[in-house]
Amino acid sequence: MQSFPTTRFSPFETTLWYATADAAPEYAELDQTIAADVCVVGAGYSGMTTSLELAKQGVAVALVEAEEPGFGGSGRNAGHCTPTFTHYTLPDLRKVLGEPWAERLIARQTRANDRVSGMIRDYQINCEWQQNGYFMGALTPAHIRDIEAKVETYNAVGARTRFVPREETEALTGSPRFLGGWLHEEAGHLNPLGYSRGLARAVMQEGVRLYARSPVTGCRRDGTRWRVETKTGAVLADKVIFTTGAYTVGGWPKLDETFRIMRVFVCATQPLDPETRRSVVPRNTTMHDGRGDIYVYKYNREGRIVASMFPMGRRGVDVGWTHKVMTDRLKWLHPQIREDIRWEYLWWGELDMQQKTVPRLYGLAPGVAAMTGLSGRGVPTGSMLGGILSEWAMGLPEKDLSLRVEPLKAAPFYMSYGPQLSLRYFRARDWLSAKTSGTPLPPHA
Predict the structure, then answer these.
(1) Averaged pLDDT, 100-123
(2) Residue ranges of the chain that CATH labels 3.50.50.60
(3) What is the CATH number of domain 134-185+261-351+418-437?
(4) FAD dependent oxidoreductase domain: which residues (predicted)?
């Protein structure tokens, strides 16, 4: 039985995005001691957009990355850019976060795609950007009630979404399975590594000193400044921001204990026949089948279906079985697919999960902050966080930020198994809902 890798940080070169993104720019390594106003650690979306915002305001920024920009979740994710929240409804989020924090974060997140599309436009980033919307299907009557509530609450804060009735869903999606659905018209998808490399070019264009292959080994006081050390160099800075997320290794004591890792895998098919593409997701939207045990998919520019799921049981351990599950779900949703499906790429990513499933801003020491806990909403969330972190670095009072600054706190023990238990609960709930309503179940449900 061929198995997935069980160690962290699976080879970057196995991703479809590595094979298809524009080549990376030349990156220097940090091999001396330099000075900067702000040192940002971690060149993912959050780190690069923070650096970009600061540099545009005349701040001297050094951006230090252990591998290359986009090596972590920013270059491995499935490429969906949907400016929503996962797990919590907007009314629930207001209860969890309280005001004014909830309303501020909702405003930032629901407009995050404006920032993404604006940066792609302004810096001419070649990343397969398609803003053709996001469709979440309803497979049971209970799903329809949830979707109607989403339309009402998201539209109330300015999002452009609508309920899609059953008679329209097949024309929109190419699937006969849905009873209705939620269409978020402002959502999009892209090549996430292409976007990462485009942001890297943008930050360097704006004057940020970006250093790759320079893992941070520590951060300590050095007189009135902070000294961020690597094996061969250091940055002396007034302020330091850690944006390493799920790929945090060292840098600041116990920062990697603020979340728990949840793994996700992504597969990509061969380029599908043009005739198939005309009837399967004909408008090139991002598709979510609506189940709690999610199956999310879209096309890349070559016409490959790029689909993602969470591992469960044999799925995510046995490669052959995993391919079968992915194929059976796709063909159940789209029974018109006649050609054989070959999954030519398969890779892993890691999510920095924590119980609130929204990012957490930690005050580590005077002048030092960290952001973790994106919990799987990488592209839009990471892109909008640069605005919040740059405001912190520019001295905006904490009471006026869009995230509460919290003391460093380890994720509770139950987060080691909680996300997987939640996934199994959602799967059982959907199975029961389908059985009681007499609606069909997908294979392996």
Answers:
(1) 97
(2) 12-78+193-259+355-411
(3) 3.30.9.10
(4) 37-392
Q: What is the mean pLDDT of the chain?
A: 95
CATH topology of domain 12-78+193-259+355-411: FAD/NAD(P)-binding domain (3.50.50)
The tokens of 166 are what? 């059953």
Which segments of the chain belong to CATH 3.30.9.10? 134-185+261-351+418-437
pLDDT digits (tens, 9 = 90+) for 227-273: 999 999 999 999 999 999 999 998 999 999 999 999 999 999 999 99
Tokens of 339: 């050609």
pLDDT digits (tens, 9 = 90+) for 39-73: 999 999 999 999 999 999 999 999 999 999 999 99
**Beta partners for residue 372, in sequence order:** 360
